[in-house]
Amino acid sequence: MGHLSTHVLDTMNGCPAAGMQVTLQRLDGAQTVTLTRFTLNADGRNEGGALLDAKGMAVGRYRLLFAVAPYFRGLGVTLPDPPFIDTVPVDFGIADAAGRYHVPLLVSPWAYSTYRGS
Known about the structure:
Number of helices: 1
Structural class: mainly beta
Strand order of the largest sheet: 2-1-7-8
């Protein structure tokens, strides 16, 4: 059963990025379609579980947009204007609609890293 999930860890504070806003989009040629917007829970994950479940999974190109600067500002971190990292876009492909895709993000106001998780 295919699904898509994400998990965000705040590496500045050593904790899940609870409260961060995330947007999932499907990229279809020149068209970008927003599929969902959500706020990360206390564990740094989508409260509703999978972003795409087996019924919603489709081969194609996708983008996750992580609202990093607003998250850190909300924690009281003083950031320059404009911030060094504002929104982190992660573009990725789903080649197997029956596959499991996990997109973790490790982030601070000055750096980020992502990979295909398990």
